[in-house]
Amino acid sequence: MIFHPMDFLIFLALGISIWAQFRVKGNFNKWAQVPTKTGMSGAETARRLLDENGLHSIPIEVVPGTLSDHYDPISKVVRLSEAVYYGNSIASISVAAHEVGHAIQHKQSYGALVLRHRIFPVASIASGAAPFLFLGGMLLNQLSLIGLGIIIFSAAVAFQLITLPVEFNASSRARNLMLAEGILYNNEEAGVKKVLNAAALTYVAAALLSLFELIKFVMIFFQGQEED
């Protein structure tokens, strides 16, 4: 098995990704034990923020799973896990407000979010097809397949990179909205930041992993051309 120099960076990004997942769960579990001073639950927080931003028609649903919270732009619904929906902790309101941030982005046609929605179908197909093209190109020694894989995989990498400003913006909106509405006290903000920053790190790690993989195959492609 040939070890490519870029493999080190890929393994590093993978390590960061795994560490980020543990950090997300650790921070959530820690701040899930700290109740909010207002006593508001995640569901109450989400409902209030939605209503204050003119999104009265968007429902809030409970979904199974841990940290399975998300905003569905197609159905236009905020879905919260049971721990977030019913919980009245710093962690619960942080996650709930973050998902509302996405709903507000959707309402305002936030540029990065619109672009992410448009590129999603292509990125979804690219993520599944690119590995087979890379593998086939290397096994058959066909640079054309690797080149095609690079072009297709670029869409998946673009999706990961575009996701970063979308997530960071939603977190920023969440903090500002909760402070403005009196849901969050200033001395509670540190906990909210830790919960949301840990979650954001998972997206950073995913983007790095995809980017390094793309760079690796670009290098393999050009090295193959030089050998030919």
Automatic annotation (TrEMBL):
Keywords: Membrane, Transmembrane, Transmembrane helix. The chain crosses the membrane at residues 6-22, 119-140, 146-168, 200-222. This is Peptidase. It comes from Peribacillus glennii.
